[in-house]
């Protein structure tokens, strides 16, 4: 049985894959990519503000709302991916990003830039690494039945 989601050379018995694995993988990939794009828009919007376009702070605040909303959805899809046979550690990624981004928003509104800026950098890096991983062949392999 050949599918677009199965890496080359994978056995025909796909381990602990359950119904819905392919759909949750596709949704995870799409949402991880959208989330990464939203996260990447944040340094751009605040850069515009720092360049003198002061109305962009509103764009930055709106972007933060979209980032946290997408993180909530990503939390659901990471858990769904794990439940349907994906890697278990992925179930922690969505909630961890959601919590970090909630803290990030709080630090931004408190103007605590000593934490807001480095946390933002960490969130960008983690989000990009996770989005990249989601498109990797390893993400398409169900966890083994050990």
UniProtKB/TrEMBL annotation:
Residues spanning the membrane: 21-41, 61-81, 88-107, 113-136
Keywords, alphabetical: Membrane, Transmembrane, Transmembrane helix
Record-given protein name: Oxidoreductase
Lineage: Bacteria, Bacillati, Actinomycetota, Actinomycetes, Propionibacteriales
């Amino acid at each position: 049985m050949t599918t677009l989601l199965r890496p080359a050379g994978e056995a025909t018995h796909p381990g602990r894959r359950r119904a819905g694995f392919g759909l949750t993988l596709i949704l995870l990939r799409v949402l991880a990519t959208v989330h990464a794009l939203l996260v990447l828009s944040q340094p751009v919007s605040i850069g515009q503000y720092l360049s003198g376009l002061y109305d962009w702070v509103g764009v930055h605040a709106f972007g933060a709302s979209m980032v946290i909303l997408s993180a909530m959805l990503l939390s659901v899809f990471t858990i769904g991916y794990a439940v349907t046979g994906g890697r278990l550690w992925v179930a922690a990624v969505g909630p961890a990003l959601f919590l970090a981004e909630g803290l990030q928003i709080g630090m931004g509104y408190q103007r605590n830039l000593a934490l807001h800026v480095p946390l933002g950098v960490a969130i960008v890096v983690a989000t990009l690494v996770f989005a990249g991983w989601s498109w990797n062949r390893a993400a398409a392999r169900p966890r083994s039945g050990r």
